[in-house]
Design goal:
By secondary structure, the chain is of the alpha/beta class. The chain is built from nine helices and eight strands.
């Protein structure tokens, strides 16, 4: 793989990735004005683009680290603009990518190391070290190996799954636990129960998930709705 990487969206995840990437020239596209000011101070990028139309260069890898609602537009734009580049995303659910014709130079990823943190100022240099990254299976074996090699270079482990296998697994492992945490915290607030004062560490650990960005997680819940309904029904059956 070549030495030029473009990160699209340099918030917490994108900037953590930039810190972790070794032996590459890294550029980023970031449109958030507050984030841009922080990124310029960090001095980790060869180029910082603030508008998609300004992005120029030859990139071996383009990593889309934006909100899920913007991912498809970025896949379409960058796969066309850079047809020789390998394109990936880091979205937490993949249903929105199913049933559509994806570019041959796109393979989806999901690093299992998210956080409630949002901005580049909170980025962690070793975020991916020892973590699992799910790569969605692709018939383009050469690109699959390139993507696996990239994630391994950040210290991550990799596993291959299909779109549907990924979304079922992570509905159980991540999405439903987050949904429960958001809902349960709202119930406690409505009941006026002082969980900060009276609860133990176990409840606080459950409620910690509700510190995540609610707008971002709403997109995930809606995208993986069918699997979440399945879990809800299974829980209902167990409780009856």
């Amino acid at each position: 793989m070549g030495k030029e990487v473009l990160i699209v969206g340099s918030g917490f995840m994108g900037t953590s990735m930039a810190h972790a990437i070794k032996d590459y020239n890294i550029s980023c596209l970031e449109t958030h004005e507050t984030f841009l000011a922080t990124l310029k101070k960090l001095n980790i990028y060869k180029n910082i683009f603030s508008d998609v139309s300004d992005v120029e260069g030859e990139f071996s890898l383009v990593i889309i680290c934006t909100r899920q609602k913007d991912v498809l537009d970025h896949i379409s734009y960058f796969s066309s603009k850079f047809p020789e580049s390998l394109i990936t995303d880091i979205s937490s659910s993949k249903t929105f990518l199913q049933g559509i014709k994806l570019p041959s130079n796109f393979i989806s990823s999901h690093p299992i190391c998210g956080s409630h943190k949002i901005g580049p100022e909170d980025a962690e240099t070793d975020l991916f070290e020892g973590k699992e990254v799910i790569i969605i299976d692709s018939p383009h074996h050469k690109n699959l190996l390139k993507l696996k090699s990239f994630w391994n270079s950040l210290g991550a482990k990799t596993s291959i799954m299909s779109f549907s296998e990924h979304d079922k697994n992570y509905a159980f492992l991540s999405h439903f636990p987050h949904l429960f945490s958001f809902i349960y915290k709202k119930i406690l607030d409505e009941e006026g129960i002082d969980y900060e004062k009276f609860s133990g560490d176990s409840l606080k650990e459950i409620l910690r998930l509700s510190e995540a960005n609610e707008g971002l997680w709403s997109e995930i819940f809606l995208d993986n709705e069918e699997n979440l309904k399945l879990i809800k029904q299974k829980l209902k059956n167990k409780l009856l």
